[in-house]
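Project channel, design review

CF: Before we commit to the Streptomyces fagopyri constructs, I'd like one complete example in the thread so the newer folks can see what an input/output pair looks like. Taking VOC family protein.
RD: sounds good, go ahead.
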Amino acid sequence: MTTTLGSFVLGTPDPPALADFYRALLGWQEVDREPAWVRLRAPGQERPGLSFQLETGHTAPVWPQRPGTQQMQAHLDLQVDDLEAETERARALGATLEEYQPQKDVRVLRDPHGHLFCLFVPGA
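CF: and here is what came back for VOC family protein:
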């Protein structure tokens, strides 16, 4: 038996809207869409996918992390060729750049529903 990653799932109060953001950011294809569930995948690949599940009580994590606050439990690392250009493109799509940036060659951003993600260049 082999275990493989089928999909990474983000909880959100609006799965279709958040899926639209990541579809535009990643250039991935939508393969399932319902009001409470949307799944994306990279063109030409079946797995892994990125899915969005309805969570009406979603609370975005605090960054940087502090004791007693909603902690980040996971985030996406997205490889890019041009850090500055892709940061600006993500912002134009609705992402926000975090004030605290722990590394010079990585950019920490939030998607429109508050999930943290990082853009990085190869070798970073």
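RD: helpful, thanks. The mean pLDDT is 94.
CF: The chain has two domains: 1-57, 59-124.
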